[in-house]
Amino acid sequence: MKLGFIGFGNMAQALADGLIYKKAVTPNQIHACAKNWNKLLQNTQPKGFIPCQDANELLDKVDMVVIAVKPHHVEEVISPIKEKLKDKIVISVVVNYPFEQYEKILAPHTHHLSTLPNTPVAVGEGIIICENKHSLTPEEYEAFVKLFSQIALIEEVETKTLRIAGTLSGCGPAFASLFIEALSDAGVLHGLPRDISYKLASQMIVGTGKLQLATKAHPGTMKDAVCSPGGTTIVGVTTLERKGFRSAVIDAVDGIMRK
Ligand SMILES: NC(=O)c1ccc[n+]([C@@H]2O[C@H](COP(=O)([O-])OP(=O)(O)OC[C@H]3O[C@@H](n4cnc5c(N)ncnc54)[C@H](OP(=O)(O)O)[C@@H]3O)[C@@H](O)[C@H]2O)c1
């Protein structure tokens, strides 16, 4: 499988880095094109990825193409290459570009799937939300899942829940980073070295998430399990409740959905 990225910014590089990190592909299987050639060379050559002058050159070399430009660039990028895209597996990572939107701009019968990855794909611990309405053949979809499940949990959702699923997984890393930073600040306040503080906070998030995924335990039960009567953790939990921790998180997501 040869993979090509049209647009090689933050998200495309996170996907490419994750695939290399997990040895899912070799660097010379990854091709990329972008607007600024010098920047593209800097982002590809040191890692052994293949830079292409433009999308036309890229499409001559790859089987699967990932559209990874900003939403307002999608139409201008696709319109000159839409005939060539008919013969490829087209994967979009563009926010707010579901199946029906692509049907308006791609050539009829193009095989395409709209997805929303998050940045932890770079270390093989990502999430890729996939719209359940797509035009890939079963074999093509299987090839996509086989490749990308090596760096992410692949979760199929209906079109109407694509945006909220993408918000949880795509904006969540910013919220989790705030929590890691705040917890680490508290550690430093009480004498823990900064690097140890970050390490403990981050691994705690990783471990808690993995525990929930493995056991499917209700998060409330997991909270109860570390709150002994009259103990220390419950002091922290009740303080967070008084400060509106949970409602702040819910309001943050609600605010995004209303934007
Ligand atoms: N970042 C995330 O967490 C995240 C999560 C989910 C989905 N997404 C989606 O991923 C897409 C890319 O986001 P990003 O954060 O990676 O953006 P980004 O870092 O700004 O990257 C955009 C890329 O598009 C390239 N580009 C612009 N015009 C082009 C053209 N005419 N032809 C070819 N390439 C062109 C840019 O090239 P130059 O740099 O040379 O200008 C750059 O490589 C967006 O649609 C976004 O909605 C992002």
Description of the molecule:
The protein is of the alpha/beta class. The protein has two domains: 3-157, NAD(P)-binding Rossmann-like Domain (Rossmann fold, 3-Layer(aba) Sandwich), CATH 3.40.50; 166-258, ProC C-terminal domain-like fold. Helices cover 51% and strands 14% of the residues. The protein has twelve helices and eight strands. An eight-stranded mixed β-sheet has the order 3-2-1-4-5-6-7-8, sandwiched between helices. The longest helix is centred in the C-terminal third of the chain and has 28 residues, at 162-189. It is elongated and about 70 Å long. The mean pLDDT is 97.
Any chance you could write out the topology, listing elements then pairs?
Elements: E1 3-6, H1 10-21, E2 30-33, H2 37-44, E3 50-51, H3 55-59, E4 64-67, H4 74-78, H5 82-85, E5 89-92, H6 99-105, E6 111-117, E7 126-131, H7 138-148, E8 152-157, H8 162-189, H9 194-215, H10 219-225, H11 233-242, H12 245-258
Summary keywords:
259 residues, alpha/beta, Rossmann fold, ProC C-terminal domain-like fold, 2 domains, eight-stranded mixed sheet, binds NADP nicotinamide-adenine-dinucleotide phosphate
CATH fold group of the largest domain: Rossmann fold
CATH superfamily of the largest domain: NAD(P)-binding Rossmann-like Domain
Low-confidence stretches: none
Number of strands: 8
CATH class designation of the largest domain: Alpha Beta
Proportion in helices? 40-55%
Structural class call reads alpha/beta
Strand content: 5-15%
What's the pLDDT, averaged over the residues? Answer: 97
Computed CA radius of gyration, to the nearest angstrom: 21 Å
Distance linking N and C termini? 38 Å
Small molecules bound in the structure, each named once? NADP nicotinamide-adenine-dinucleotide phosphate
- CATH architecture classification of the largest domain: 3-Layer(aba) Sandwich
Helices and strands, in order, run as: EHEHEHEHHEHEEHEHHHHH
Largest sheet features: 8 strands, mixed
